[in-house]
Each structure stands twice: as structure tokens, then as C-alpha cells.
Amino acid sequence: MKTAVSILAVGLAMLGSCLMTQAQVVEDFKPSELNQAGKEYPMVNSERRVRAQLLAPEATSVKLDIGGVKYDMVKDENGLWTGESDPQDEGFHYYQLNVDGASVPDPGTLFFYGASRWGSAVEVPAADAEIYALKNVPHGVVRQHLYYSKVSGTIRRCFVYTPPCYESNPDARYPVLYLQHGGGEDETGWASQGKANLILDNLIADGKAVPFIIVMDNGTWRPTGPMAPRREGEPWPPAGWADGFKNTLLQDIIPMIDSVYRTIPDNAHRAMAGLSMGGMQTRAITLGNSDVFGYVGMFSGGSISPADIEQNPEFKQNVKLLFIGYGSRELESGRYSMGGDPKTNTEQVNALGIKTSFYVSQDTAHEWQTWRRSFYQFAQQLFK
Amino acid sequence: MKTAVSILAVGLAMLGSCLMTQAQVVEDFKPSELNQAGKEYPMVNSERRVRAQLLAPEATSVKLDIGGVKYDMVKDENGLWTGESDPQDEGFHYYQLNVDGASVPDPGTLFFYGASRWGSAVEVPAADAEIYALKNVPHGVVRQHLYYSKVSGTIRRCFVYTPPCYESNPDARYPVLYLQHGGGEDETGWASQGKANLILDNLIADGKAVPFIIVMDNGTWRPTGPMAPRREGEPWPPAGWADGFKNTLLQDIIPMIDSVYRTIPDNAHRAMAGLSMGGMQTRAITLGNSDVFGYVGMFSGGSISPADIEQNPEFKQNVKLLFIGYGSRELESGRYSMGGDPKTNTEQVNALGIKTSFYVSQDTAHEWQTWRRSFYQFAQQLFK
Q: Quick one: signal sequence residues (chains A, B) (predicted)?
């Protein structure tokens, strides 16, 4: 009798949980725009929940693993598993599926490099998706450029965006932004999940940005590993951690770009920016090389303090703009504020006479929507 | 007793099978060059077997699905599944894993578009891998080019290879090859799994090919669907199946390329080629438009017959070279010889006074190694 009651109680609890879930989920799911051609799933609803589906007839457990949470999916009589997440922030999210303990990409999506792997992602429609929409405006070209690096003795790859007018104005010369990805990402990120090319196409078409070249290279420097695990008691990041990429940037990449492309090779027409690890690299590299870079952008990657300026006094004369961007959720959590509170730092640096811009992306965290928006803001202030 | 004997018999059979397998497999596996950075598996040995590995602790069955065969993998005490295939041909192979009935990409590899999906692939080292190796030679650039199509009313994407000398010779003009993928593939194929950019970089560096531009677009024409399922009794491919891509090629792509790039816009400096479905499109498009294309290449995609020439007599005057390539295994099987035996057809067309080249890739089938080699041969005969 005790057993029967227990089973009934569990059954009612499960039924309640099931009904509650159904009541919560709004059934207006649409395919994610990052799905492979012809694939319906994953989908996203107006609550910004992600629903995944996978055929796995013999599996005993399938989970949707997104935003650090694993959501159980439910099997139907055909072996089709379906399940949805809690609401996600607007924008781009990496995720994966878990099939009987195996973490695998969802075969329904295009693949993106992040978290040190090529894997699935989903796009949650954003209120400001206009800024990176594919429109019928003149489009720049993204070039895959292979080059030999003297610093590393290897052939490396970068992507180079040239603006729409680049080919039709064969005598014009352009400023250059060196734009870096985050830790566990690579040189593909900004023109893929970042949509930097579409953002700049749209800004140029609207007359809101001057045309410039963007160079996107790989800042992951092996074998030393710029983001090696933190060891107890050691300063983090360790001294010299950005030197590997700094050397290849200054000795290989910039000379190559200035020789192959029609650039304006001076500090007033050269910018560096990056997200997260790329922002920290931007800080580490531009502080000591402000004669090379006249514009500096850091997105969710720390800030520059009065103490930094004291150690690099020429920064004040050389730099035309210091841009600091963060997601509001990052600031609320107090994370990713390496080197002190970024807002206070930026105000204090501004008070020293350096032009600054501090941007907060509302209701986003340490994620691509913050960086797309930061780039959108930064790009409008460059080379003006 | 009967049961005990049966178990013993099964046990001996399994042991025998196990020993036999171990004796067959040479333990000199090395990571595939298409693996993601830092990933050991999949691996390939000197027999050209592919070995895959996946952590799936709670799975009851994991299979390696390659070349149309599903190979059982074996679980160890840590939940790590490992298994290998029979020997594969040299070159590039699509594959997937099957976890308790779910077909998923192998999270160890880079991803490629084929079989109408983005999925895993493995590279079996080839004796002639030199032809597409990444070397320290001058490299051309592969450009992602977005453009508006009047024919379809959409924004389309193509990839454009410009040779190494393109930027440094701003007044030079170049011939153009329009190079098409196969069914279930897309515009990414030739510069990714096809390695057409590296093959041409190497040929130009060796003085074996003249520098030219390559345009790689998407020949999958929706919504009509060029490769819709065959219906009993209907001719295949159906009449007009290539008109969708023909219209966008002639009305959108070629005018756009000739206006944006420094081309030589005439028949003597314009070629079309493709693999499989792309070869069939090349046949369908160039036969009626030989005033546009002076060089024609079909790789595993049929051939041109004397009857074709009879219906298109101007082909003889206009075309400087007709190249037909096949894998030897395709010819042996008698498959993919649409419109009659390709060797006989090509000999007969040659006898009509048309310059032809017939190439057979040894020990390869309807697969990328055949097409890499065909392109390597074809490129050396272009625009000379």
C-alpha cells in the first residue's frame, strides 16, 4: 500500500510538472536562422526559449546543453526526442546535444568555432537585429588570406574585409581595424557569428561609418597558450602572455597588410579592438604601441586605468579614442572587470584628457550580442 | 551443459573474430589532417583504414558510418568507443557517427557540406598529396562575395579565387573559370574539400598553369530542385533542369564578375567546369552557349557525344578544349556515364576536330580525390 501511494504521488508530481511546463511554453516556435538549409530544428519562440529535436530511437537519454544548463528532452513513439530551454538572451548562443553521455553537435545547425571546438549554435531574434541583417546594400568582400609568418615559421590564415567601394576605387586608400576574437575562438568568429562584415556594410550604406578595412587573425598563440589555466598565487594573466600574438601582429601581419592592401599606414588610420581575450590583448598591445594604433576598443575585455596611462604616458598624445564596451549582465555580476571597475577607470582616464566612449549593451552577458553591438557603436566612431 | 557449450562456442568465435581483426589492422594510425585543432581522432593508418573514437558512457551502440557501411565500435571501461573501417580510397571522405540510432557529426573533425548536410570528413593521405599541399609559395586569396541576383530576387553568395599576382599587378586582366560543385554540395566545396585554391597556387608557383580567377557559386537551384527524385518512365535529368542556374550564371554572375574583377571578358578567356551534377550543368549550359565559354571541363559528370555536336554545330568552332575526367572505379562500374560511354564519346568528338582531353584518376571512385586530380590536370591546359 505504501508503495502504491508513493507511485501515485510520484505520478501526480510528474503530471503536475508536465502540465506546468506546457503552460509555460508559448507555442510560436520558428526555425533558427543559423539552421542548415531545409532543417526545421532548432527553433526559438517569442519567449526566447530554444527547442531542439533529434532522432535517436535507441537512446535512453538526450539533453539540450545550452548556457551551462542541461535540459532533458522527451522521446516520442517514433524515437524523436524534443525539448526546450529556459529563455535565453537575445542573439547568438553556442550549444550542443548530449546523447547517452556523448556530447555531440546538433546536426541541424551550421557550425561555429567557440569553446575551443566547432559546434552548434542558435540565433535568438533580437529587437535590434536590423543592425546586422543581410540587406540589399552594397556588400564588402571577406577574403581568406594565407601568409607566411616569419615569427612562427608557419603559414597562417587571416580574414580581411574590404569595403564595397574598395574594388571600384582602385586609387583610394583605407584605414584598417585589427579586430580580435575571444579565448577558445578563432579568426573565423567576427565575420561569421560576429557579422562584422554585415554590420559595417549597413553602417557604410547608411552613411554612419567611414569605409575601412578589417583584419581578423588568430590570437591564440601556441605552444605557450595565452590562456593557460590559472595557478594559485600567480598573477593572471601571466606576464608576457600577449607577446606571442603581439610579435606576429607587429612583425608579420601589419607589414603584410600594408604591403598587399591599399591602406593608410599610420597611427591615425589604424585601430585595434577585440572581445574578451582579444580585448585583453588589445590592452596589452596598444598600451606599449600607441604610436602604431590611434584607436583602441575593448569589448568585455577589461579597461585601461590611470595607472596604465602613468606607465605609458605617450598613450595620451597618440590615442584618438578609447572605447570600452560591456554587457549589462557582466557589469551587474562584477565579473570580467580585470584591472578595476571599467566605468570608473574609463571616467578617470577621460578626466586625464583622453577621449573615451563607454558603452553598455542592455540585457546581455559575456556573449556575441554584446560584441556585435559594441562593434556597431565603435565602428561609427572610428577614423573621424 | 548444452548452454555451457554454446557459450564456449560463442566465446571462441568472438575471440577468433577479435584475433583476426587485430591481425588485420596495422597499428600505425595518425590523426587525420581534417581534425579540429588539438583533436587526436579520427585517425588513419597505412592501410587507409579510418579509426574513430567517441566518449559515450551510457550508449549501448556506437557505429562508424563511412562509405555506405556502418562499422560497430567497441566500448572500453571508461565509456570510450573505438572502431575502424575497411580500407578507404586515398583522399577525402564524408562520414558520420551513429549513437544509439542518432546520426550525428563526429565532434573531432572540421565540417564540410556534402550529402545535403554539414558533417564530418576524414582525409586519407594520398601518394600525390603534393599537388594540393599547403606550401610556402605565393597564395591567392579566396573571397566571399555577396551579390544581389535579379533572376531570383535574393542575395546570393559566391567564392572568388584571385591568383597571387592579382593585387600586385593592378593593371593586369585575367581569364576566369566558373567551377561548380556536385549534388548535395554547395559553393564552399571547391575551396574547402576540393582544395582548388591550393592546387592552383602550387601550379602557378611551378609555372605549370597561367594565373586565372576561379568563381565558385551555388548550382543548387531552388525551388524547382535540379536533382528532384527520378520518376519512373520520365527522362533523367528532366528537360530544362539546368535552366535555373544557367539563367543566374549568364544574367547575374558573369556580368557581376566582369564588372567587379579585372577579367578578360571573352570566350577565349572564360571556362566552365564542374563535378558530377556540376559537370552535367556544364554540359547543359556550354553546349548552347559556346560563344560564352571557350573551355569546358566535366569531372564525373557525363560527356559530350557526336549527337550533341550535331545539335550545336557552333561548339566545334568555339571550344578550344573539352576535358572529361573520371575515377577508374566509376568507369569499371559503368555508373555515371550519362549519355553513353565517356571515353568513346570523347574519342568520337575528337575525331570531329575538337581538341579533347580524357583523364582517368587511378583507383578512385565518385569522390573528391577524382575531382582534385581532374582539376589539377584541367587547370594546366586552360587558357594556353
A: 1-23
B261 touches chain A (CB under 8 A): yes
With a CB cutoff of 8 Å and minimum separation 6, the contacts of A3 are none
Burial of A250 (C-beta count, 10 Å sphere; 0-12/13-18/19+): middle
CB proximity under 8 Å: A 185-224 to B = 191
Q: Are residues A78 and A149 in the same domain?
A: no
Q: Which of B41, B58, B214, B259 to mutate to test the interface with A (most CBs of A within 10 A)?
A: B58
The cell 584628457 sits on which residue?
A353
Q: Are residues B105 and A105, on separate chains, in Cβ contact within 8 Å?
A: yes
Within 36-75 of A, beta carbons closer than 8 Å to B belong to 36-38, 54-62
Do B118 and A36 make contact, defined as CB atoms within 8 angstroms? yes
- Residue A241 near residue A277, CB atoms below 8 Å: no
Q: Same domain for B58 and B111? A: yes
Closest Cα partner for A274 from A265, A286, A263? A286
pLDDT of A188 above 90: yes
Q: Distance between CA atoms of A281 and A285, rounded to whole angstroms?
A: 6
* Selected residue of A143, A147, A257 to mutate for chain B interface (largest B Cβ count, 10 A): A143
How many helices and strands (H and E) does chain A possess? 10, 19
Q: Is the pLDDT at B11 greater than 60, yes or no?
A: no
8 Å CB contact of A170 and B167 = no
The residues near B110 (Cβ < 8 Å, ≥ 6 apart) are A118, B34, B35, B36, B121
Residues A314 and A350 in one domain: yes
**CA-based nearest distance A129→chain B, Å:** 18
Residue A239 is predicted with a pLDDT of 76
pLDDT band for position A334 (cuts 50, 70, 90): confident
Domain hosting A243: range is 130-380
Domain end marker among B103, B125, B147: B125
Q: Do A167 and B260 touch (CB under 8 A)?
A: yes
For testing contact with chain B, the best of A33, A144, A262 (most B CBs within 10 A): A144
CB distance A59 to B99 below 8 Å: yes
- Whole-number Cα distances in Å, B159 to A263, B115, B214, B253: 24, 20, 8, 11
Q: Nearest CB to B58: which of A38, A61, A143?
A: A61
Q: Give Cβ neighbours of residue B268 (< 8 Å, ≥ 6 apart).
A: B294, B320, B383
For A262, nearest residue in chain B (alpha carbons): B167
Tens of pLDDT, residues A23-45 = 589 999 999 999 999 999 999 99
Contact predicate B296/B322, CB 8 Å:
yes
Q: Between B9 and A82, name the one with better pLDDT.
A: A82
Contact A117 B167 (CB under 8 A): no
Distance of alpha carbon B28 from alpha carbon A159, whole angstroms: 36
Grid coordinates given for A232? 594559485
Number of domains observed in the structure of chain A: 2
Among A97, A135, A141, the residue with its CB nearest the CB of B143 is: A141
**DSSP secondary structure letters along A202-268:** HHHHTTSS---EEEE-----TTT-TTPPP-TTS-SSPTTTTHHHHHHIIIIIHHHHHHHS-B--SGG
Residue B263 DSSP label: B
CATH code where residue B239 lies: 3.40.50.1820
Helix, strand, coil shares of chain B, percent, nearest 5, are 30, 25, 45
Q: Which residues make Cβ contacts (< 8 Å) with residue A69, sequence separation at least 6?
A: A85, A86
Q: How many CB pairs (< 8 A) connect A and B?
A: 134
Would the CB atoms of B100 and A56 count as touching at under 8 Å? Answer: yes
Q: Categorize the per-residue pLDDT at A195 as very low, low, confident or very high, splitting at 50, 70 and 90.
A: very high
